[in-house]
Design goal:
It comes from Novosphingobium pentaromativorans US6-1. The protein is mainly alpha-helical. Helices cover 87% and strands 0% of the residues. It has 3 helices and no strands. Helix 1 packs antiparallel against helix 2 and helix 2 runs antiparallel to helix 3. The chain is elongated. It starts with a helix and ends in a 5-residue tail after the last helix.
Length: 93
């Protein structure tokens, strides 16, 4: 019974994260300003990372956890670079 509840909860989380990725992708495409697009991209990589983590929990493979860590690191660096570009107009000083 407990494994069935866990499997259903993980599947429901994956469906909700897929919907969140769709909403974030819509914000990236239709954002009225560049700040909205950066925020949508940030939410998109975060939902993708969490989707990869839930898939790793579901399958029991550790490779997906390492992939999620790489996505988190690259996503954070990308968000910082975009924010710096929007504030100053250049990334590298």
């Amino acid at each position: 019974m407990n494994t069935l509840i866990l499997a259903l909860a993980i599947t429901a989380a994956q469906i909700i994260l897929g919907l969140a990725m769709g909403c974030a992708a819509f914000r990236v495409m239709r954002g009225p300003r560049a700040q909205d697009r950066v925020l949508g991209l940030d939410a998109l990589y975060l939902a993708g990372m969490l989707l990869l983590l839930t898939y790793g929990i579901q399958t029991g493979r550790t490779l997906f956890f390492e992939g999620a860590l790489v996505i988190a690191l690259l996503g954070f660096a990308g968000t910082v670079a975009f924010a710096k570009f929007l504030m100053r107009g250049e990334v590298i000083e």
